[in-house]
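Q&A log
Question type: sequence-to-structure
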Amino acid sequence: MNISKTATRVFKQLSVGLMLITFFASCKKDKPVATEKEPVTSTRSLDMVPYYKVQRVENLQVETDDSNPTAPKPEVLFSLDYKKMQPATYGKTSFWDISFSGLYNSFIGGNNGSNSDNAGYTGPGAGGITILAKSFEDLTDIPVASAFKTARALIGTDDMGEFGVGIGWYLYDFNGSIVGDGSYDKKHVAYALGNAFTLANGQKTQPRTIIVRTAKGDFAKIKMISCYKDVFTTDKMMRNTPHMFFTFEYVIVPAGSTKFEIK
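Response status: OK
Response body:
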């Protein structure tokens, strides 16, 4: 047995093997790693409303008192995810997305844990809210992050009516002559601006749509339809119609979306 020749042959084999290992390791190291963009998820738990589907809420009742309308009423918390009102004890949670407070509980805000002027303060809520003068159907682009505000009671009366505070979701007709005929029954009526309608002067209103970043970071757009019980058109909205029964429609799309889609 020629130990010298055998050792030489083994050494050469080991050298070639090491060279191959080094070569393939180098190739593997140099090969760029493909990075996948995190997909927008469309999964929901069974007790949540689905993404991309229009939801309708009718006659959501909140507390009010016509004899003392300026007296603060308990803030109402509503979950768009679960399509229901939530108890006040859920304030510091992410299980609600919008709140109704202020005059007649008619001003709407989002759920945000970083703003001290928010029912969700110190909680995990990452929400916000804004409103645009655009119809629910035509609004497809989700606004930039800076457009969303985080305080409570941000969106209410519109400048088209009395006591307006910018773009709002309803027009308040104090004297009954902006929308109505000036009669007693048409005074002190609040008209939701989710759909277009004609004013007394013949001008047509521009619809408003509320956009919400939910407590969990998804996005929703909301069409406010009425604050009167079982009444959804302006001609039937009267002073003494049972009020503060909110009817609205909305759709939710996942966090990371740039467009509102209805499928």
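Response note: The longest helix spans residues 3-30.
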